[in-house]
Amino acid sequence: MKISFTTLGCPAWDMDTICARGRAYGYDGVGFRGLQGEIDVTRLPAFTSGVAETRRKLREAGLEVSDIASSIRLCEPEKHADNIEEARRTIAVCHELGCTNVRVFGGGDLARYTRPQLADFGRANMEAILTLDGAQDLHWLFETHDNWIKSTDCRMLLDRIPTPAFGALWDIGHTPRVGGETPQETYATIGPRVGYTHIKDAVYDPGHKLAMSDGWRYVVPGTGQLPLAEAIGLLKAHGYDGWLQFEHEKRWHPELPEPEDILPAYVTWIRALVM
Fold this sequence. Notes:
Elements (H helix, E strand, L loop, with lengths): L1 E5 L8 H11 L3 E4 L18 H10 L3 E10 L6 H18 L3 E5 L9 H15 L9 E5 L7 H10 L5 E6 L2 H4 L5 H8 L3 E6 L1 E4 L11 E4 L8 H10 L5 E4 L12 H16 L1
Parallel strand pairs: 1-2, 1-10, 2-3, 3-4, 4-5, 5-6, 6-7, 7-10
Antiparallel strand pairs: 8-9
Helix pairs in contact: 4-5, 5-7
């Protein structure tokens, strides 16, 4: 298994800083969800006209691109044209950078549609994306997020899109904290389709000034109440050899620790766990 960090965790860093510190801290890769002021990296010169220089910098730092985290929402039919256009841009960037993983969301409006209807929209959108040149070379992974956190719900969409080019991104923080599932329950339902992971830890502390609306607050991985080690152990036991990405959400939660402090702490914890 390899470890990466997401650029959500270091929204102020430029590409040179990402490369230098990612290498210094001991990461194998970096996943791109924004770069400084832009959330969609496929629109930036560093990933279009200047992608060769970006590729060189990453290669010299010994960092792979573990994923491109898109904003594609499969289960929202009104976003079909936007999804296709973003998918085209993302395919081009992935091919240039030697990246195979693309994060997508499920999304959808459960006030207007049933979940099976949303899953049907998701199938139609994903099937259209997979007809694009180069799309079948990539792994499109929808995250256990928003309306699609419980593994039984995720399975509904996975079953509709059985191709190996489509799978799940297991946010190991979401399924127990929001979905109320044990790692064993999640893995039993979607485990064979998991192609990527997000890892973050939290404690239930509703009185704390940094608590989120559900009473939880993020903490350094390995110091919280989420069954991260248990989930990673399950993946390891079943032969998972993909990425274990630290999803430090500094961009969305600026009060969280600085990346210079928490990114090295994740490496120390995760290396001891998986060795």
